[in-house]
Design a protein that fits this description.
Elements (H helix, E strand, L loop, with lengths): L9 H4 L2 H27 L3 E4 L10 E5 L4 E4 L14 H11 L4 E5 L8 E4 H16 L11 E5 L4 H12 L3 E5 L5 H11 L3 E6 H10 L6 E6 L2 H10 L5 E4 H10 L12 E7 L7 E6 H16 L9 E4 L6 H12 L3 E4 L7 H8 L3 E4 L1 H14 L4 H19 L2 E4 L2 H13 L6 E4 L6 H11 L2 E6 L9 E2 L12 E2 L4 E3 L10 H4 L17 E2 L5 E2 L1 H9 L4 E7 L7 E7 L1 H10 L1 H4 L8 H5 L8 E6 L19 H7 L1 H10 L1
Parallel strand pairs: 4-14, 6-7, 6-8, 8-9, 9-10, 13-14, 15-17, 17-18, 25-26
Antiparallel strand pairs: 1-16, 2-3, 3-21, 4-5, 11-12, 18-19, 19-20, 22-23, 24-25
Helix pairs in contact: 3-4, 3-5, 4-5, 4-9, 10-11, 13-16, 14-16
């Protein structure tokens, strides 16, 4: 045979590039076949199956056409709440049902292992807290007493709230970003006499605001160097006790739990509005337990077979969202871990605790997306492969297959999964809608169900949630079971219910808060948060705030650049950086944003927005009134210079 070809192999006569191409195609087809059939065997992969919903086109129904009221088509699946009427019932249920399970955990430092309290110990602590605090009140008074909760997320914080529910007390969360005037307003309006504080520093702050009103302050983490001086300065005016001392008092003098009525007040959550002082939202035992049952029902639709779930609590407990999340975790007997220090070391704690349920806000998920895109290098070949991997994962998920540990997972998404510990099986995102490309990336990268939700403090946290296998992005999902939604016209923005309806599927789409939307001089309405989400996907942007007014013909922005990315581009793309004009609207152009929604002037700010400087809310959304006030002069100059 070789002699027929002059003593040479047939393959040697072919173009070497063609031979390589043939071998590459054969290898690629073999890899795809193995991936689809055997990957779970040879790379220890995991596959979860989620049953597709029966019909994604009818996610809500009209119950009152005249008043534009719609309700859910979901069934309230949860059967746990037949006998649970109050928070006291809820606490007793979880303690009895899951007594030996690990409940709350925290590491004293990053070098130590966490200490876990069981559900039984948590229940005993709740009774001790309630017994001790109840002794400080006159039992002859029929009025409910308010207890302040001031500090970072902790087992002590949440146990004290549960104690309020079991002993007829009212929990009032406090948080720093409200400002001093707002804190004074809350203290006076609720008549707070007893406050749980996380640190000595927070105690000093409260005492500077009001000392005559407070009678007892409970301190969770006392600093020995400041503790004695604090006690000396408050002697005779306010009684200071540590949390451990409080528990000891309650254990030595136990009191029976009370039987609150369903319509008794359990919680007052203060929300910061755009103007004026914060408003207190009242939650009764009935509304709180009902909200927990709705959230539990939404989670149960997934039918995951994982027996132990873990959640890392980092979103502020002063907001209703995190309270709902922890309550659902407790009902199911899951583990809740708290941060070792603060949110600056969030990824360290996440990689250590390896949560199975990750509750996030768009800012965090968008940051993961931009960091990963930056890591690909931006080359055409790597970008094409990366997008191909995402589409492959999404196509599987449309069929209800959530494969983890395959070849694509190992080569493309392993590093980002390691940031969260490689165990995430459900991601819940609230606070604001996600950009479509960010949502698709997160679904593919973690190969799990991603549920977006919309809620409000007034509704107990949850109003709508996306269905598990809904492939569409850009909406807030279906109305959850047990909730009704009334749509109203906003004529000033040309939004008419009769004409616009609820969309093809009956899901709810959030444009923006009506108070945030502004009109340009051309008469065009701009939803600033939607524009910010587009620009926030750029690796160059750490924070962005978009503003405009009816006298201007364009929108402007305050931008905090990403220093690392700017330095990297200076080193590799100096020529393009010296010609900023073509790239200033690149992100918006790529997302097909209309011209009027593209930022025309930018003020650069070196200091990142944070909760500490008041530019972010506790749920990490841009605090628009605060940013507008702080940068008012800079924004005015942007219009003068244009």
């Amino acid at each position: 045979m070789l002699e027929q070809f002059g003593g040479h192999s047939f393959f040697c006569m072919l173009n070497p590039l063609m031979a390589f191409g043939c071998l590459f195609i054969i290898a690629l087809l073999t890899a795809v076949y193995c991936y689809n059939n055997f990957c779970q065997i040879f790379v220890n992969g995991k596959i979860r199956y989620v049953k597709p919903m029966e019909n994604l086109r009818f996610q809500s129904k009209v119950t009152d056409s005249k008043n534009h009221i719609r309700a859910s088509t979901w069934k309230l699946n949860s059967t746990l709440f037949g006998d649970i009427k109050t928070v006291r019932d809820l606490t007793e249920y979880v303690v009895k049902k899951h007594s030996s399970n690990p409940c709350f955990g925290r590491r004293p430092n990053f070098e130590s292992a966490p200490t876990w309290n069981t559900y039984e110990k948590m229940g005993n602590t709740v009774k001790a807290i309630g017994s001790a605090i109840s002794q400080w009140f006159d039992s002859s008074h029929e009025e409910q007493q308010f207890i302040g909760l001031y500090g970072r997320n902790s087992a002590e914080w949440f146990s004290t709230e549960l104690a309020c529910g079991s002993y007829g007390l009212v929990a009032v969360p406090l948080y720093d970003t409200l400002g001093q005037e707002a804190l004074v307003h809350i203290l006076k309006q609720t008549g707070l006499r007893i406050v749980l504080c996380d640190t000595v520093a927070q105690t000093r702050k409260l005492l500077t605001l009001t000392q005559d009103q407070l009678t007892h302050i409970i301190i969770v983490n006392k600093d020995d160097s400041e503790w004695e001086s604090l006690k000396e300065s408050t002697k005779g005016s306010v009684e200071l006790v540590t949390f451990d001392q409080l528990v000891t008092i309650g254990q030595k003098n136990p009191l029976p739990v009370k039987n609150p009525k369903m319509d008794d007040t359990f919680l007052v959550c203060y929300t910061s509005g755009s103007t004026g002082l914060p408003k207190g939202v009242i939650h009764t035992h009935r509304t709180f337990v009902h909200a927990v049952s709705l959230a539990q029902s939404a989670i149960e639709t997934l039918n995951y077979d994982q027996t132990i779930h873990r959640h890392v609590s980092y979103l502020p407990l002063s907001h209703i969202m995190e309270q709902m999340v922890i309550s659902v975790m407790l009902v199911s007997g899951y583990q809740v871990a708290f941060l070792t220090t603060d949110i600056s070391r969030l990824l360290t704690d996440l990689s250590y605790y390896r949560p199975t349920i990750f509750v996030a806000v768009p800012r965090i998920l968008s940051r993961m997306y931009t960091d990963t895109i930056r890591g690909t290098g931006g080359g055409a070949w790597t970008t094409w492969l990366f997008n191909l991997a995402i589409q492959k994962k999404l196509n599987e998920q449309k069929r209800g297959i959530f494969r983890q540990g395959g070849l694509l997972d190992y080569f493309f998404f392993r590093k980002i999964r390691e940031q969260l510990g490689c165990c995430v099986s459900l991601i819940v995102c609230g606070s604001a809608p996600l950009q479509a490309e960010v949502l698709e990336f997160i679904k593919a990268a973690f190969s799990c169900v991603v549920m977006e939700g919309y809620g409000s403090t007034e509704c107990g946290g949850l109003v709508t949630a996306t269905l598990p296998l809904d492939p569409n992005a850009g909406h807030a999902g279906a109305i959850v079971a047990g909730v009704t939604v009334k749509l109203v016209d906003v004529p000033s923005m040309n939004l008419i219910v009769e004409r616009d309806g609820m969309g093809e599927t009956g899901s709810l789409k959030i444009v923006d808060r009506s108070k945030h939307i502004f009109k340009l001089s051309q008469g065009e309405y701009i939803a600033p948060e939607k524009v910010e989400q587009v620009y926030a996907t750029s690796p160059l942007v750490t924070n962005i705030y978009v503003d405009g007014n009816s006298t201007g013909s364009y929108i402007v922005a305050v931008v905090v650049p990403d220093l690392k990315e700017v330095c990297r581009r200076f080193a590799t793309h100096l020529v393009s950086l010296c010609s900023p004009a073509p790239s200033s609207a690149q992100s918006a152009d790529e997302k097909n944003t209309v011209t009027l929604s593209q930022v025309k002037a930018i003020h650069l700010c070196p200091e990142p927005f944070s909760i500490a400087n008041g530019m972010l809310t506790p749920t990490m959304k841009v605090s628009r009134p605060a940013v507008r006030r702080h940068f008012s002069e800079a924004i005015a100059k942007l219009y003068e210079q244009k």
